[in-house]
Amino acid sequence: MPRHIRRLLLVLIGLGLVAVAVRNLVVDRSFYEYGHYRGNAVAEIARDKPKFQGTAYCQSCHAAEYDTWAHGLHYSPDTARIVKCEVCHGPGGGRDPGQNYLHAATGPVHPGNLKLAVPADTTALCTVCHEQIVGRPAEQRQIVSGEHAGGQQCSLCHDAHAPLRFKGALAAAAAGGNPAAGQRKTAACAPCHGPTGVSAAGLIGPTLAGQNRAYLAAALAAYRSGARKNPIMLGVASVLSNSDIEDIAAFFASQKCAAGPGGAAQLAAARAAGAAMCASCHGANGVPTGAAWPSLLGQSTDYLQGALRSYAGGDRSHVVMSAIAKSLDDAGTAKVAAYYGGAACK
Amino acid sequence: MDDETSADEVQAGRRAFLTCFGSALAGGAVAATATALLPGPARAAAGGAPSPAIPDYDWKQHQWAFGVDARKCIGCLRCVEACKAENEVALDAHHFRTWVERYVYVEGEDAPRIDSQADPVNIAASGSEQHYRFANRYQDQKVERAFFVPKLCNHCTHPACVQVCPTGATFKTDDGVVLIDHTYCIGCQYCVQACPYGARFFNVEKKVTEKCTWCYHRITKGLLPACVEVCPTGARIFGDRRDKQSPISRFLAENRVDVLKPETGNAPNVFYVGIDKDVR
């Protein structure tokens, strides 16, 4: 090869190497680590601080407001219809490593300056979701605010945290439904649940008497929405209005279904049946230990077993019970059902 | 060079330079090629990091996807406001990482009427460019059918925006998210043009392109994207397709889903139910 060509080649190779060296210097080391991009960018983007904190965060300091909210209609986890704290109050912000709260939109930060927006104009807030407009599906309860509220703030009557809880004079009338009115609406239930809601041999419906009021109302609402699947009760519940449900629940809750004596012997029996864990909520004798849990009194073994199966299978769903039912095998389910099936109404 | 310098000396100088230059570079060449010329995946395989350094997160374990159930959307626009707050998007009526459209079929008209929260009538109803609500329009018309459709970046499997990016500033991650590296973005806006869904916009202040990231900073911490977090009716669904019990896997198993503009071949990863052929 002639010398001048060789030199030329050498120069070209040299320039190529310079290019490679410059690229090496200029382009980030992580480029091409995962593909045609700067690999480090991924972790950098992921490092950003979340602003919306979730309801558990608010609960940790505002347990009372949380409790009201969690028992109201703005919290229906069964149907995934949940209006979270930060939807109305704005994002709780996040702490940066210097312990400063980061959030611009809600102004003074929380709780450093102990202020998070308290919505003053509830008409503007609530009508964003509840004003009747073209396109809004019928499942969403809608009002024409001019007619419904007559220019008043929604919060004059509604408790924003549990919207069907009313303030002022409305409170007494609406609280928990009217049992007397409820009784008039239960004629259709008797053939299956018994006239006072005490089930007996030959009746296909479970016992409703003495049951937790909120549980009954939630059960009927769940049948109506299809969240709890049962063809018979879907038909029954689909014709009930919200106030029917409240009244009926109040009626059956006020009916008597008492328990036999409990005590240490009962607890031992529960333990033997593998129901010790259940007893912490449903009681050793089927009488619930707190207002949040339903009673198991007066239910047949078959019904209880069916209920546990539907939690395990997905026809019913509940954060606690679905997990518990899935953890039981067939023999375990039969055993606890037989145990509680013995607790008849007295 | 002064006048006395002979041609020979020039010759010698050039030769010396070339020899020096050549041998110095030949030395560096071995090292340089080893690191720089080796293709990236091969380097990763040869001991590079298997997954980006995100605490308690391995992107190989996840494949994210998004669902929209338009039948449930009530058009409250909390998602739009939450997205702006979470991602510090410009608070005006022109820049949205996610938005909601309303399709209204008026009797006797062939095509639906479409408005979004950015429509002047709707902005007038909210009274501010920083808050959004759908106005109660069409009261005088006979409306046959109407529904809301939330929209956002589709995080496509074959994203056109990534193909056209000249600097590798936008890319598809292994867990299925299309991101933008703002330090590499030169603001040329080819990607804004390439996206068939109008999901990208130009941030004039930072001179970079911006779009939905599915809140990558949240999902890699086990949280939901902000729009999903605040949706009051479960119309927005998000989750991991690798987890058969995740909301998105169940949504996909239980519904016949559509994607927007399948004919463009981008293969979107936002799946819709309750829309019709007019939604594109």
Overview of this protein structure:
The complex is a heterodimer of chains A (346) and B (280). Chain A is mainly alpha-helical and 346 residues long. Helix content of chain A is 47%, strand content 4%. Among the domains of chain A are: 84 residues, no CATH class; 76 residues, Orthogonal Bundle (Cytochrome Bc1 Complex, Chain D, domain 2); 78 residues, Cytochrome c-like domain (Cytochrome Bc1 Complex, Chain D, domain 2, Orthogonal Bundle), CATH 1.10.760. Chain A contains 18 helices and six strands. In chain A, α11 crosses α12 and α11 packs antiparallel against α13. About 8% of the residues of chain A have low confidence. Chain B has 280 residues and is of the alpha+beta class. A three-stranded mixed beta sheet of chain B has the order 9-1-10, with helices on one face. A three-stranded antiparallel beta sheet of chain B has the order 3-2-4, covered by helices on one side. In chain B, strands 5-6 form a two-stranded antiparallel ribbon. The chains are: A mainly alpha (346), B alpha+beta (280). At the A-B interface, α1, α2, β2 and α6 of A face α1, α2, α3, β2 and β4 of B.
Q: Biggest β-sheet of chain A, characterized? A: 2 strands, antiparallel
CATH architecture annotation name of chain B = 2-Layer Sandwich
Number of spatially distinct domains of chain B: 1
Q: Classify the helix fraction of chain A into a percent range.
A: 40-55%
Distance between the amino and carboxyl termini of chain B: 70 Å
What form of chain B results from the Cα inertia axes?
A: globular
Strand content of chain B: 15-25%
Label the overall shape of chain A. Answer: elongated
How do the SSEs of chain B run, as a string of H and E?
Answer: HHEHEEHEHEEHEEHHEHE
Number of helices of chain B: 9
Oligomer: heterodimer
Beta-strand content of chain A = under 5%
Secondary-structure element series of chain A: HHHHEEHEEHHEEHHHHHHHHHHH
Mean pLDDT of chain A: 84
Radius of gyration of chain A: 31 Å
Low-confidence stretches of chain A: 95-114, 169-174
Strand order of the largest sheet of chain A: 1-2
Helix content of chain B: 25-40%
> Can you tell me the CATH topology of chain B?
Alpha-Beta Plaits
**Low-confidence segments of chain B, ≥5 residues, pLDDT <50?**
34-47
